[in-house]
Specification:
This protein has 107 residues and is an alpha/beta fold. 40% of the residues lie in helices and 19% in strands.
């Protein structure tokens, strides 16, 4: 059984007062994680919502190198965008940023 780690949700949970994202990453079985989930969110009244509608924020992207230092079998990143999908330039930039932060040079 393989795992997909939702780096977006880990960051959003930490932002909203939950557990530290890096602590959760470190606690996972490193040989089972093969993929990351990334998405952008919106802040409303001090609460960050996992809306899948906006570009991936820098703080979420910064979790990729840390996660890569823990997980050695990661094969890819899934970027989810549920609305504002017509913003093609933003989506292309999300792909580019994920490549830069992960050193995954795949098309």
């Amino acid at each position: 059984i393989s795992l997909l780690v939702d780096l977006c949700n880990l960051y959003i949970n930490e932002y909203n007062g939950g557990s530290k994202a890096k602590d959760i990453i470190t606690s996972l079985s490193s040989n089972r994680v093969i993929e990351y989930h990334m998405a952008g969110g919106l802040e409303h009244g001090g609460i960050l919502d996992d809306s899948h509608s906006e570009p991936i924020i820098h703080e979420i992207l910064e979790l990729i190198p840390y996660a890569n230092s823990v997980f050695s079998n990661v094969r890819g990143i899934v970027i989810e965008r549920d609305s504002n999908i017509d913003r093609i330039d933003e989506i292309k930039e999300d792909i580019n940023q994920c490549r830069i932060y992960s050193n995954i040079n795949r098309k």
